[in-house]
């Protein structure tokens, strides 16, 4: 970690950078003599995080020999020259001010859906589109797709962007914003980088290259069947029934009846057993039998934070779209599994 | 898991048994038709633990086909005949009534010290000696030794015992007692088994065979040096300093000064760095330099629950005994590490 002590501003800046993602944090300190130095990040963190409250003194005595002192302890660790530490990317120009809460909400509703297969390229990241008065997030693993639209202040056309962030940077951004109580985050981007700044924090990330799938065209606009259900009851039923499903495929069957206004979630696994859960729902459309991967469906339902959800169907082989009812613009899409006769 | 429904007593008994350890739990139920049956434990547990509050109905329809029903769900799993399920050992005769709290405290203060190397035989267990009005627990890994003496009601000589329990059964006993609010546990033993009973619970365990080390003779009775220190401050200092120690050996050095009434805990690891923590202590005896495995020492200090601890030394190569100050009869012994000059 790069440590920079600035005697003029009386501020210390810590920088971590793996050439893809960089984080910088600045705070006030009493500085007698300024300078820069790199320190072994894990060791330095392990010591400082275990100290009790109170002031710390850092002193470089001999070259790169750093003494860390508090009231009752004294540590010496060896640093390195800061000369070869790479500079964090900077981007000039006008920034976009995005509401921090919308960023963390958008990331929470999409991050779980990114592909975790390293070779999948661009879909291992979260896609952002900032245009007009909306910021759209999208993530897809190929099996499921989650997208959220958040309101933002109107964006001039020259300032809008369409980028794909590596999941690791998106996760770190969410973690840092969760620990802060900042209202807005300034974002600047160019072809290869995005830079986020707020208070005394800064996160830079390389962007993922490649054409993100044209996901909007994958989402059906019209549906012939619609179900509204209590979200938590549906998750519980899915999780109980899934106990008896094949652990790899996690297939569960939905039977929807408009006459009974009932959903039956069931499973029947040879040599293991069978199970069925009945839920009261509101359902319109012809009766339907359709099967899902219980895990994928439950993951999507879990990040919604409304009491009720709406599931929209066409046929037993066409994509299903799930929305939280009355709470934010999230669209979760999953493909049904074709049951063998 | 063996399920036995008794129509006369209107009670259900569940039994688990791996031939070494057995657990039996009985509870009331409405039973229309009695019988016994074994069910796949994991599957049965996974379903029942996920159900919401309310009554369950279990029914055996076809042979071994069990239906589990609640208000909104219905599961079918396949059981097996109970014919071949082995019987839990029973021991007749008079029982010893041991205070449950003393058992859990004694186990908490010793279990951490058992050897985890499977081939170490008898020292992978916790040794118990019940005699006169005391129950003594001991565990040792070969590197450290922890022993606790708890007051019990006077034991007749014919009723006393000296046994070694497998750590797994000791842990399970502690877990079960922690979840109960029972005052006393009835214990019966014979050569190869120990049986614990309370309320509607029962735990049986095979005992470890072999001669337990004569540990009492390992514990020094007299000391030429003695230190009293705040327990938590000592643990924190050890943990901070250990950050800089070799991760394998975790060696830290103690320097005790009677003139300064100070303990300095320090480490100096080549290519990593050095650290020193100074603590105010009460110390009597000649100054001493002695080294320990920081992890072993911290583990022992953590299970004591007093504000202060006493450390008793002779020389830098003789065993050190640590006691909680004013809270229970625990004796923790660790060997110092010989420092190369």
Q: Summed up, what is this model?
A:
The structure is a homodimer of 341-residue chains. Chain A has 341 residues and is an alpha+beta fold.
If you had to describe this structure to a student in words, what would you say it looks like?
The structure is a homodimer of 341-residue chains. Chain A is an alpha+beta fold and 341 residues long. In chain A, 16% of the residues lie in helices and 42% in strands. Chain A contains 5 helices and 24 strands. The first copy, chain A, has helices at 41-50, 100-108, 167-178, 231-242, 294-303; strands at residues 2-6, 11-17, 21-28, 35-38, 57-60, 65-69, 73-78, 96-99, 125-131, 134-140, 144-151, 161-166, 184-189, 193-198, 201-206, 225-230, 251-257, 262-269, 273-280, 282-284, 288-293, 308-313, 320-324, 329-334. Chain A has a 9-stranded antiparallel sheet. In chain A, strands 4-1-2-3-15-14-13-8 form an 8-stranded antiparallel sheet. In chain A, strands 19-18-17-21 form a 4-stranded antiparallel sheet. In chain A, a hairpin with a 4-residue loop joins strand 5 (57-60) and strand 6 (65-69). In chain A, 31% of the residues are buried. The model of chain A has no long low-confidence stretch (mean pLDDT 93). At the A-B interface, helix 1, strand 7, helix 4 and strand 19 of A face helix 1, strand 7, helix 4 and strand 19 of B. Strand 7 (73-78) of chain A pairs antiparallel with strand 19 (273-280) of chain B, so a sheet runs across the interface.
